[in-house]
HAP28 protein (Leptocoma aspasia), 177 residues
Amino acid sequence: GRKGGHKGRARQYTSPEEIDAQLQAEKQKAREEEEQEEGGEGATGDPKKEKKSLDSDESDEDDEDYQQKRKGVEGLIDIENPNRVIQTTKKVTQLDLDGPKELSRRERSEIEKQKAKERYMKMHLAGKTEQAKADLARLAIIRKQREEAARKKEEERKAKDEAAMAGKRLQSLSLNK
């Protein structure tokens, strides 16, 4: 009985071709504004700038334009914050792969933990730690108990054997009579 709300009735989606056309138009507008700012220097200036105005599919220069655009009021206010870090991209040729890497705090602590564990295991195997000494003492006590138990079993077995031999002797003596 209820009618649906107003949401979702007439949804219109833009096609990828339309989006591409809009982006191209915005890029063209930005180039024209740059040329107007430069004035008459465009024809006598750098060949890179002329190439930039001629090429429409250069992705590197488009990225630079995108990074230079500021949102909202940022373009009107000059910010001189010494703590502000401006991210600069490095080229592959500028990267120093041979130099020592700086480890993060977590990585350093992880490496220290592993080294400490290895040192402890070496000392443990050598019997120098308190836990190793306690383990060795416990093992010595257990060995003594097992030796005593083995001795007792051996004695009992010998006693049974002697009793059995004595019983056989008595039996053989009684049969001989």
In short: The helical segments are 16-38, 41-44, 47-54, 59-68, 105-126, 130-176. Residues 105-176 form one domain. Residues 47-59 have pLDDT under 50 and may be disordered.
